[in-house]
User: What shape does this take?
Amino acid sequence: MNWPAIFAVVHKDVMVISRTRGVIIPLLVVPIFITVIVPAVFAALPQIAQNIGVLEPPAELRQWIAQLPASFQLEMAQYNHTQLLIVITAVYYFAPMYLILPMMVSAVVAADSLAGEKERKTLEALLYTPTTDRELLVAKLLAAWTPAVAVAWGGFTLYTLVLNTVAWPAFGRVFFPNVMWWVLALWVAPAVAGIGLGFTVLVSARVGTFQEAYQLGSLVVLPIVGLMISQGAGLLYFGPGPVFLIGCLAWLINSVLIWFGSRAMRRSELLLRL
Assistant: This one.
């Protein structure tokens, strides 16, 4: 593997992305919304409700807790009403939504890295550089996967700081993250970033513009929406064990997509579609 050539392609792609407004704006706006505004609202609203005299959690929430494992019910029993609302919304309900962050970033960057190159008429010159198909694939994958994981882990850190700060009056201590969130951030998020990347590579190899690739690639968030609905309906419990298994499945899907993507990223295939 010619690593200097690979890192040169990665550096070029990152520089192009940083100067492309259509890419950088969603990469800033969405993470800020997810990691700053959402935890602040989740932590503040239950405390506001307590201050105006709304102390009891909704009956639907109590029913949702009652149908989950006994270990989860035991954990929830240690919290007062205000703390319970914060933990349920910010720690558990929100967990699947967090996965949109690495998936979206990898999809946006991969779409610009491949379909965007076609649109700018720069991909052909890249294909004639002295790099192998495998080296070119690795470079394109790293150029999208690395920023996605960095944003996911940076967002996790920011979410932790905001949530613990805003919820400090209710808890009087640092209560987040728990074990499940460590597994989610360190194990599942990188795998989900790979899924978004692999799917978008397949799409980008067959379309001609960034917008087409991004719009089709965004369909990959539908399974994340399904996880959110399943947990809200009580069909899925986001504990450490289930989250670890979700990560294993995500890595498996990731591997399959990357394997198919490697076939689509052959020079002969790409040149035919220029």
Residues 3-272 form one domain. The chain has one domain: 3-272. The mean pLDDT is 80. The chain is about 80% helix and 0% strand.
